[in-house]
Every structure is written in structure tokens, then in C-alpha cells.
Amino acid sequence: MATSTVHEPPSKEYDEPITVVEKGWKNIHLTQYQGHWMSPQYIPAVMAFREHFESLSDDIILTTQPKSGTTWLKALTFTVTNRNLHDFDNHPLLKTNPHDLVPFLDIELYANGHIPDLTNLPSPHLFASHLPYNLLPTSMIKSDCRIIYLCRNPKDTFVSMWKFNNKFLPEDAPIPIQEAFELFYKGITPGGPFWEHVLGHWKASFERPERVLFIKYEELKEDPTFHLRRLAEFLGCPFSLEEERRGIIEKIQRLCSFENLTSLDVNKSGNTRIGIKTENYFRRGVVGDWVNHLTAEMIERLDQLTLQKFGCFDLVFKE
């Protein structure tokens, strides 16, 4: 794990008046920072991350919105990049939650007034972030590091977010789905609005296809073999014919599958380093669960808004 030192307040270059505050999900308040919503407690860490992080050319950065398949992406990418270092029968994923193997930069390593010393970590560095593309550090955008973005159908993203937040603060009364829906629809979610977050990475994947890989959760679920090959090639470590013959891709799929990860003791009890119960990261892991929760009116409104936001960018999701 990276060591760290206490940092000075971020420079004025990244500071801006923060005046817009909304009551968020449950008792969590969100504030707008440079056009995106986030918890006020994380803004100093985001500023420090943007100011102090120095990206290396072989860095691998996983970016997602919350509840878009982050845990699965961390497990898959860690396993693909480290497949020559660990035996499948004694793999770190069997004893460690994916979030503790791939730390968040913006809400973990730079949190609580620290600047991490990342020089002692093995290369390539593998990190994660929930930030939208336009808030990633300049050094990251200008470097040759690789950014992998996983997104999910907005209806499933919303339902998963609603379910997660009701588990996150169990002492609070559950937030009614209609109230949560109105917040999501207005874009008031961590890192939101949802549509701007997705579009930032979608556009970047066309502008810098060799450095930004855009993956849809639904397509990854439908054909994991194809997308694991695509992921490995993007990272510069394609599967060899011998690896394919030995069934390495299938072994990675089984190791990182929802069924396997949820069966492990480490993901049934205990907390991650940032204090979230490991079991809260796993719910159903399926596509289309929104049909069990959304009203016809919610579906119509979200579909219309998604078409309005994504229609001219040729961005569609399978359902």
C-alpha cells in the first residue's frame, strides 16, 4: 500500500466557490464542483488528486460511475494484468476484496489530507476513480496511461444505486424509490449527472482510442471472452495461443464471476479499507433488473432523457 504525507491545501488553480448544495440520497448532501455532484467531504481530496497526481506512461486507470460494475472491472483487470504472477488456486482475489487490490485515487489514496507516495508500488500501477473524464488530472490526460471506462444502462445503474444507498446507511430510513428517481433524473448523484459522465468518456474513446477503452456492462456480460481479449490487447498484454489453449480466459472468467466472488468469505463479512461492508458491493449482477422496480412512467422518462442526451452520439444500451 502507498505511504503518504499530509498535504497543504490545494492551490487556487483548482479552488472555486462551492455554493450549490442539494440534499442527496438519505442524509448525504451533495454539492456541485465544476459541473458535477459529489459529497463535500471528498472535494478536498479531489482537488489534491488533480493537483498532485503525476501519471506514469504505464499507469492503468479504471473509471466508472458508482454501481456500474466497478467491483467486477477491478477483479477482471487485476487478474488479467497479474496473470503471470499468481496461481488461480491461491489467488489474491480468494482472500481480498477487489476494492482493496485496486484502490480509489480520489476517495481513498488522496483522502483525509494526504498525498500518497506511489513510487514504491509495483509497476504498472493499477488505480480506480469515480471522477468524470473532464475532472481527471491533466497529467493523466496528457500521459500515455491507459484509461478503461465501464458504464451501464441508466435504468440498472439507478436501481443498483438506490439499493446500495439503502444498505449503506442502514440506521437511516430507506429512501423511497420515487424520491431517489427524481434525484437521479435531475443528475444529482455522486459524480453525476449520469449522462455527462458517460459522454465524457465516450467522446474520449473516439478522440484517443489507443488510450481510452469504453466498455458497456451489458456487452461484457453477454460476451466476456471477447471483451477480455479486447481488454488484454488494449493493455498491451494479449493472450497468447498457448494461454488460450490452456483455458486462461475461461479461468479468469470463473475466478471473477459474480457467483464465485459472492461465495468467498472475504466478500461475505468484514469491511474494505474505506469502511464499507464487502457484502454491500454484491447484489445481483444481472442485466435488466430495473423491470422489477421501475414504474412505466419512470421507464418512459428515463428512456426519453437518455435518447435526448445520447441519440446524436450513436450511444445505445442493450436491455
From TrEMBL:
Name of the protein described by the UniProt record: Uncharacterized protein
Naturally occurring in which organism (per UniProt): Persea americana
